[in-house]
Specification:
The protein has 168 residues and is of the alpha/beta class. The protein is built from 6 helices and 5 strands.
């Protein structure tokens, strides 16, 4: 039997910086204290020495990788979010390409700009071969049921992929 895990977080140093800025801007304390759990964030990035052996140990066939909170939704500026989403999706695709039978991906979308988010979803699915996207809750108080996001839902439907909503 194949075991496929969904919502398996992956990260890199840029995402850790996005998280730190978002927490400082919003006055949040870390839900995972890096001082108390020093291996959590490094292990998000460690595919070869940590993740694959652990998957093998527990019989996990595949993981669908995605980024953790606050994701791209934690970025204030729309242009920065668009650039970062593309950069992060490209980095995740390179990770997946090293082990395509073990990993798949959910794209990060710059929902600060719904049209750009729809375009990035299409690029991630058609060019990077992602299986859909994960969106980290609301974007600065805007939720995905608002009319400006209909383009994103329509694009996901046309591509036949899910939008996984992660509630923060």
């Amino acid at each position: 039997m194949k075991r496929i895990c969904v919502e398996e977080h992956w990260g890199n140093s840029e995402l850790i910086e996005v998280r730190k800025k978002w927490m400082a801007r919003n006055g949040f304390s870390p839900s995972v204290d890096p001082k108390a759990t020093p291996t959590v964030f490094p292990r998000l990035m460690d595919i070869e020495e940590f993740r694959l052996p652990l998957m093998d140990e527990f019989g996990i066939t595949m993981q669908v990788l995605s980024i953790s909170s606050p994701g791209i939704q934690g970025i204030d500026d729309a242009d920065t979010a668009v650039t970062m989403a593309k950069k992060i999706n490209d980095a995740l695709a390179r990770t997946i390409d090293k082990h395509p039978s073990r990993f798949a991906g959910f794209a990060s979308l710059p929902t600060q700009d719904p049209i750009a988010a729809a375009e990035e979803l299409e690029r991630a699915v058609t060019q990077l071969h992602f299986k859909g996207a994960m969106i980290q809750g609301h974007t600065h108080g805007a939720y995905l049921d608002q009319p400006e996001y209909f383009i994103l839902w329509e694009r996901a439907e046309a591509l036949g992929v899910p939008l996984y909503l992660h509630v923060n």
